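Sugar kinase (Plantactinospora endophytica), 336 aa
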Amino acid sequence: MTPPVSGTRSAGSSAGEPPTGRCVLAVDVGATTMKGAVFGEDGGVRHSVVVPSRADGDPVGALRELCRRLHAEAVAGGAAPAGIGVVTPGIVDEAAGLVRYASNIRFRDVPLRALVHDDLGLPVVIGHDARAAGVAEAVAGAGRGLANFLLLPLGTGIAATVVLDGQPVPGTAWSAGEVGHMPVYPGGEPCTCGQRGCLEVYASAGGLARRYARLGGDPGLDSRAIAAAAATDPLAGEVWDTATQALGIALATLTLTLDPARIVLGGGLAEAGAQLFDPVRDALRAALAWRTAPEVVPSAFGAQAARVGAAILARRAAGLAVPDGWAAPVPASVGS
């Protein structure tokens, strides 16, 4: 499933035939943008919109405004919103509907579920973005049908979601999966968290770009540009090789600790395809001397996984079933 461009209806809904029936609203809050969507009864995206997060101004107000806008768009299109799911990064207490701390979006002890419910009067579920992405992969994506798997979205930072029997593991303090701060090179380069040698320093999109610039490369290049230049720019090649090696080492540690049936990689870096997956798989296999490595595959939903997960959580909060294959994506393919 490929969502339509912002503000348009998906294929299958013409301007003269607005969607009808129950729908759910989904919002994925990021550091720079918030992505909202109206999901129809069949799992198709009926309307989508992307707005700035306004993290330097009033991020909570911007989020509430987006939720109200989505609700109005759904009603104007002839649909009846049944519930809404909102997912954010940070430490998210899903049981209390509270975002305890999210530094990138300047949330601290925000009673998000109560605020959105006051605005819309709908069932509201608040979730963590990476755990919601795990729900999407479990229900209709790369983890469907598995008893357990591990999801790592590789973006500005790196988090992990452990999924057991279709449910993500939140941890005691709602902060399980902070593998970005797993030391992969003890005594290595400093991380913003205060430790040294963290995985995020070497293998996150943000860390990769910062490391390239710190070693003398063009500070204007992002991770995609560095990946594209890796074959011709020796420094870009070195930084990329270190990133894939670091990720393979981290996946070996996680494999030995958790024994996942499958490892799913998502986020922007995973869009590099075989350029990322081939050396990461090689590094993982090389680090496991006595056991077979689990398969490493791309996310089925890519950058949309958290938003799809928010929609699934919204259906559950509204008491609606989530049929097998609901919101099924176009299958991703990277050779194994």
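Residues 1-19 have pLDDT under 50 and may be disordered. The chain has nine helices and 13 strands. ok done for today
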